[in-house]
Amino acid sequence: MSPSAAVKFDVTQPDLDILLDELRAQGCQQARVVKVSELIFRESIRRKCEVPHCGSYGNTFQCPPYTPDMKQVAAWIPEAYEYGVVGVLVTPPGGMATPGDGNVMEVMAKAGKWSAKLSNVVGKVESRAHALGYYKAMGFNCGACTWCGMWTRKWFNDFASGKNLSACTVIREGICQNHRRARPSVEPLGINMPEFLRERGLIPKTLTFPEIATDCAPECPFYAFVLVG
Predict the structure, then answer these.
(1) Would you list the domain boundaries of the chain?
(2) Does the predicted TM-score (pTM) go above 0.90?
(3) Exposed / middle / buried, residue 211 (Cβ in 10 Å: 0-12, 13-18, 19+)
């Protein structure tokens, strides 16, 4: 990567094209520029973290109730940003279906692996935007933060057996050991990214919880979202 550019306040199309190419280079099947004014905010999206209650709720600083209030987010993002980029990773057909033995935790652990993969994509694209001069660039994940060992098979086995789940280091000690990589997902911020992407033909049918049989499981999209400036 070339040396960092001077700080930029106006987003240019050539720079957006560079970030789109970076998303594709990281494996995203779809990559698109986002006009922030077109984002959709829904309180119902945030509430999906609570109903049914997600195991990450309250166990990581990147999830509710620690994430910013949706109304605050809906106010400051359009005020501070005009453009962003989004990339979509799509799982193979049936790859997120519940196994024949009904072990839902197994498929949720698979979701954790995809979320971890996407987190790396977000970090690389965000860093590339910083290098281009966009000092405000800010990335968001899809799904739970996995950097402290959450959403692994062991974590879900503990969850299913009623054991105490490990909380992230921010909650225990006030310091994130992975602060350069950990990012909140768009869902607890109330950003309805699936609706936004579906209206533009960028994703297949979306699964909220992949608790369905293999023969009817479509592809499942995971999306990286980076605000640029």
Answers:
(1) 20-227
(2) no
(3) middle
